[in-house]
Amino acid sequence: MKIISKKLWFFVPVAAGIIVFALLVKFKSRPSGEKTQEQAAYVQVFRVSKQTVVPKVVGFGTVQPGKIWKAYPQVSGKIVWISERLDVGEFFRKGEKLLQIDDSVYKLRIIQQKAEIKKIEATLLELAAKERSYNAKLKLHKMSLALNLREQKRQRDLAKANVVSASSLEKQQITTLIQENNVQDIQTSLDLLPSQIKYQQAQLEAAKALLAQAQLDLEYTQVEAPFDCRIAKADVEISQYVQLGQEMLEADGIGSAEVVAQVDVGRLATLVLNKNVQPGRLALSAGKFTGIPAHLGLTAVIKHSPNGRTFRWKAKCERMEPVDPSTRTVGVAAVVYNPYRSVSAERPPLVKGMYCEVDIYGREQPDSIVIPRSAVHDGTVYLVTPQKRLEIREIELKYEIANIAVVKTGLETGDVIVTSDLIPAINGMLLDTTVNIALEARIKLAAAGKEKEDSK
Q: Residue 231's closest CA among 67, 87, 73, 84?
């Protein structure tokens, strides 16, 4: 009996479990039949509209003066005078005297050449007098010869008539021959005079040229500033002997300063996407193209940012330089005129060696569809339908600049796109939208090139 009772106690828990399971199945709660409410995803949106875009690309470069002058002596000599202000960093006006080379040798050369000229001029006067004398003598001797010839004819006629002797005729013939020889000698001397005069005239021209050279050399002994400039290098001292070809000074022009910004060729094309210019027809392979920037309507702003502060200068794009084959970039020269104007403690001048950013602007492109660059996802945007549903739409871009994207096809004015990160993004999903007014304002400023307008 004890064995049987132990076996019964084993089945009691099993039976209780079966009863409890049956009760749970019987009385379990059934579905209420109500539909689950769809949850909307909260996103910020951007309202698409047409705007006027001022395209901009950014390049970098180092400031260089528009003109650089290196002074090499054109004459040799000892430096006898130097301006008290001739030092690195000093400013000089055009024509202001910088230094003086000893000019005594060149003054003596001028005196010597003037004396040589007077000597040659005197020789020419003498030759002219000889010419007049020879002409007068020749005239007299020809007259005398004519008389002798008539007398010789008369003597010959008389000799035939046996009136005079043969010896008298011979004497007259000798006299006539002597006179003919005299005429020939004078004529020969007269014929030689033109060549002698030409020779002396050539000597005179050579002497005058040497005098002009001596006068130039005298001028070269005085070194003056060729334009308004700032001294960048001064390697001269009093009593120093300078030779031809020896560099003495280097000066930078202060009339203009330029930065040649290197810009990617593809980026440069975004500046000229307008009806008037086809960038594919621009030849950018050789030479310095001074007419292209004006044709493209390019302008620039040079920026320098030392110690967290940013200084800006409006600049003129004056030329393009050849394509660099190693970097595939084009040099665009942005020029600032009178860079030392309005210099103060609050605003430094644009001086050589500054590393600057150059913002280059193209012509205005009106009626452009502009959206935030961050709203583009691999060629698509997240469009909000009128029913507040998500539509993933493909678009085609013209280009992207900084934080904006200019749309070619796929969007119209009045469309609304999502600017928030949406993970996952599923077509047709319900959206709860809020307009990002601050982002719209930033995109509008970026598209309009507001920085260009605010530059000083």
A: 87
Q: Which of 330, 343, 341, 297 is nearest to 316 (CA)?
A: 297
> Which domains are present in the chain?
43-52+366-454 (2.40.420.20), 56-65+255-361 (2.40.30.170), 68-102+221-252 (2.40.50.100), 105-220 (1.20.58)
HSE toward the beta carbon, residue 221, CA cutoff 13 A: 19
pLDDT by residue (tens digit) across 158-203?
Answer: 777 777 677 777 787 888 888 888 888 888 888 888 999 999 999 9
Give dist(CA 221, CA 7) in Å, integer. Answer: 135
> The whole model's pTM is what?
0.67
- Can you name the residues that pair with 258 across neighbouring β-strands? 64, 335
Cα separations (Å) of 393 from 23, 416, 418, 425? 55, 12, 11, 12
CB 66 within 8 Å of CB 256: yes
pLDDT at 416 over 90: yes
Amino acid at 157: D
In order of 46, 70, 282, 326, 342, the CA distances from 337 in angstroms are: 42, 21, 27, 31, 12
CA atoms within 13 A on the CB side of 140: 8
Asked whether the beta carbons of 439 and 419 are under 8 A apart, the reply is yes
Which helix (H) or strand (E) element contains residue 418? strand 416-418
| Helical segments of 278-331, H only | 292-296
Retrieve residue 340's tokens. 């030392």
